[in-house]
TrEMBL record:
The keyword Transport applies. This is ABC-2 type transport system ATP-binding protein. The lineage of its organism: Bacteria, Bacillati, Actinomycetota, Actinomycetes, Micromonosporales. It comes from the Bacteria. Gene3D superfamilies: P-loop containing nucleotide triphosphate hydrolases. InterPro entries: AAA+_ATPase, ABC_transporter-like_ATP-bd, P-loop_NTPase. Keywords: ATP-binding, Nucleotide-binding, Transport. Residues 2-227 form the ABC transporter domain. Pfam families: ABC_tran (PF00005). Belongs to the ABC transporter superfamily. One of its GO terms (molecular function) is ATP binding.
Length: 236
């Protein structure tokens, strides 16, 4: 599972996250919600070893990300798109990632087919649409057949068919006893996908629990979200 405990991070004297704690259990899709500036990006960056906390821990199966020898076998992540070289072909982009984590080459073609890019595997990434780029990012996250997925806005740019595919895939992934931490601004889609929800506002946890518990007595998840968060400042 994912365990965040008393996590704190300051930038320029301001707390981006302030003593936050939550867990993301196996067998669940956990939604991570918050306005811009709430601390979502900071939390995810620390979890994936891209930044260091001032205090507290963010662990993946009991270890910091940096201690995972071949991390893609444990956790797959999508932050800020595929991160590929525009002139590189899709298959080559995934191949060098696979080699860095000792993943067999055949897995590259498996994940390209899985996300619907098998037919454009040899096309340069710069020719991809936004939605195709998101699919490539998802393929990269799935390369190591991980037990955990950490995804930030994975359906950005996808058409309705692609959105439905991602929703179905993530629910099936969790149903097999695996773990999903999903950050998104789309409340309706989150309500259709998540089993649990973590809401962060102003660097602190505003709510954490099962989706049905969080939304009890409210017309929708969107109403709960605005009731808990209000207006926020610039994103960290």
């Amino acid at each position: 599972m994912i365990e965040v405990a008393h996590l704190t991070k300051h930038y320029g004297g301001r707390a981006a996250v302030d003593d936050i704690s939550f867990t993301v259990p196996r067998g669940r899709v956990t939604g991570f919600l918050g306005p811009n500036g709430a601390g979502k990006s900071t939390t995810l960056r620390i979890l994936l070893g891209l930044d260091r906390p001032d205090a507290g821990t963010a662990l993946i199966d009991g270890k910091p990300y940096r201690d995972l020898r071949y991390p893609l076998h444990t956790v797959g992540a999508l932050l800020d798109g595929p991160g590929s070289v525009p002139e590189r072909r899709a298959v080559d982009h995934l191949t060098w990632i696979a080699q860095s984590n000792r993943i067999p080459r055949r897995r590259v073609h498996e994940v390209l087919d899985l996300v619907g890019l098998g037919g454009v595997a040899k096309q340069q990434v710069k020719k991809f649409s936004l939605g195709m780029g998101q699919r490539l990012g998802l393929a990269g996250a799935l390369l190591g057949d991980p037990e955990i997925l950490v995804l930030d806005e994975p359906i950005n740019g996808l058409d309705p068919e692609g959105i439905r595919w991602v929703r179905t895939f993530l629910r099936g992934f969790a149903a097999r006893g695996r773990t999903v931490l999903l950050s998104s601004h789309l409340m309706t889609e989150m309500a259709d996908t998540a089993d649990e929800v973590v809401v962060i506002a102003r660097g602190r946890i505003a709510a954490h629990g099962r989706l049905d518990q969080i939304t009890a007595g409210h017309p929708s998840l969107e109403h709960v979200f605005f009731a808990l968060t209000g207006d926020q400042g610039p994103e960290w």
